[in-house]
Please model this.
Amino acid sequence: MPYRVLIVEDEIIVATEIEYVIEEMGYESVGIAADQKSALAHATQADIALVDLNLRDGPTGINIGKILAQTHGVTVAFLTANPSQLGDGVAGALGVMPKPATERDIRELMEYAAARRRAADARPPRRLRAFSSNDASLA
Model:
């Protein structure tokens, strides 16, 4: 059964491009969320979430990522033009990849997230800044 992916992104063109790539890879999109309310409405359906930081309702992405990872057990990766806003990272999340991200970046990020979801050894993509809370298993 393919992993179900939630795309938390308020720029619809960017979101639909990401959705196209993940579906082409064989993953199932559970939806595109442009704000915290709609993201959390999909929380129980998602295995993996790609989360932007600044959304329609403001800079809610960090909180969304925390809730998805810590409360719902979703494998979270942040995808943002503002990676410095994440500081040392978010407990439970894999890391952050800067935007703009190419199709190759998205593919590498999804492969890594899926491997980590399966608890398989995986090397983070070159453009992903992995958060320290997850580094021990990456050595």
About this structure: Residues 103-117 form the longest helix (15 residues). The first strand starts at residue 4 and ends at 8.
